[in-house]
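We modelled the chain as a single entity of 269 amino acids. Its sequence is:
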Amino acid sequence: MEHSNKSDALGQGVIIFVYLAVLTALEFFIAIALNAVALMIVVALVKAGLVMYYYMHIYKLNEEPGEDRHTLEFKTGTNRIGLWLFLLSDSFVFGGLAVARFNLLGLTRPELAQVLGLAITTILLVSSFFMNRAETSLKHGDNKAFLTGTMITMVLGAAFFLIVVLVEWHTVPLIADPVLALFGEPKGVEPLTPSSGVVGAIFFMMTGMHAFHVLTGLIFLFVVWNNGRRGLYSTEKYWAVEAAAVYWHFVDVVWIFFYPALYLIGKLI
């Protein structure tokens, strides 16, 4: 839903983020207190729907691009369809990983620090919030706010990536051990490795594929940030920014489902 007024558009982004924050807290409470899988799935679907509709602008696929193939409107419309077809094909990869997780592990899960999982999920949701603000600001002619919002998004995305790779993968024990202890991981828990049987394979495939998309998203964001710094976008010509934002929010949507699948659903193995 588009807003001609900048403050209204930014305000909508805030409201959606508050909804996402409340739903994430509710999801964590359901997992800790009730362990109700069906409710967690419903919450994840609602969160994904909010991100896709309001942050990823899926409703724009219904816009008529016009018949003149040489107009910017027509080219943007066809580019938008192409991007969503790519995301649809990519979602089958992530969907296959989710199916494999439940097929092989059932209603059990790895012993991971749940509070750390909540923390990195929060980081990614906040990054989507700032990316929405950056895109919205550019649409309304505020290039400075676009650059600031995109830079904050990149910093948060890099933080998410580094925590997963350095801490959750336990690649640097000097960093991983104190961080995991801080977030409540019990002492003596053997860190997962790719060779830790089925559990390790599923964990590293899911987080590895997602981390790869986070990394490519960061590269994409840096490109549009650099182009914005050079003044290459305008209120009419900003398709690259929309594409980068939609891709980043897609990465967020994937994690909305991966987070409960890895950290919340099921009993400890």
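As a brief sanity check on the tokenised model: Residues 170 and 176 are 6 Å apart (CA to CA). The chain has one domain: 6-268.
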